[in-house]
Design goal:
Layout (H helix, E strand, L loop, with lengths): L8 H24 L12 H69 L3 E6 L3 E4 L4 E6 L2 E4 L6 E3 L7 E2 L10 E3 L7 E4 L3 E7 L2 E4 L2
Antiparallel strand pairs: 1-9, 2-8, 2-10, 3-7, 3-9, 4-8, 5-6, 5-7
Keywords: Coiled coil, Signal
Length: about 200
């Protein structure tokens, strides 16, 4: 075996530096290795704590997901309830609109037929009245036109008698048409003046 005495000082220093560097590199690699890896196969407490912490976070996430699912179900039920209420309100509003339209139609009828309308008619013209119409002959001459259910009810006479077809219509008597079955009056003078309330139609010769 060769003695270190045979080595000069410069070579000895170089050998020490190389040996020291080699040992230092291994120490640094061992210190920087992550626990639980192939460089550090030993399972350390820090690695175990880290794994346990990851499992704990997973449980918290599952709990949050379950809570959100429950909340979503509650919101879905609430939405269904509100949707049903909206549908009921929409139906109620539509019903009100329909009733309002009917009232407007009735008001229009009342405005149209709710008062006597003066007419000037000529010979052979016919005034055909609808149900609940009222007729007053103010001037001239006219004959009654009866319907299938009877003639014109003479309210003014007080007897309740009907004026039937071809009978003379008295002046200034209130005549009531109870049905829409073709009742009215026919003008037999050159001119006649009539008041009418309710639905009517003027038929020419």
């Amino acid at each position: 075996m060769k003695s270190f005495k045979g080595l000069n000082r410069k070579k000895l220093i170089s050998l020490l530096i190389i040996t020291t560097s080699f040992i230092a590199v291994h120490i640094i690699q061992a210190a920087s290795a992550q626990p639980g890896t192939d460089k550090d196969p030993l399972v350390t407490k820090s690695y175990v704590d880290k794994v346990l912490a990851s499992f704990s976070g997973s449980k918290d996430m599952d709990s949050k997901i379950a809570a959100l699912t429950t909340k979503n179900d509650e919101l879905t039920k609430t939405l269904e309830t509100q949707t049903k209420k909206v549908e009921e309100l929409t139906k109620a509003v539509n019903d009100l609109y329909e009733k309002n339209e009917k009232l407007e139609e009735r008001l229009a009828i009342i405005e149209t037929y709710g008062k006597f309308i003066p007419l000037e008619l000529t010979e052979n013209q016919k005034l055909m009245a609808g149900e609940s119409a009222e007729i007053i002959l103010r001037g001239g001459k006219a004959k009654a036109i009866g319907g299938q259910g009877g003639g014109l009810s003479d309210i003014t006479s007080g007897t309740g008698a009907d004026i039937n077809t071809d009978q003379d219509v008295p002046l200034n008597h209130l005549l009531l048409v109870s049905r829409d079955d073709g009742r009215g009056i026919k003008i037999v003078s050159k001119k006649a003046w009539v008041l009418v309330k309710g639905p009517y139609e003027i038929v020419e010769k």
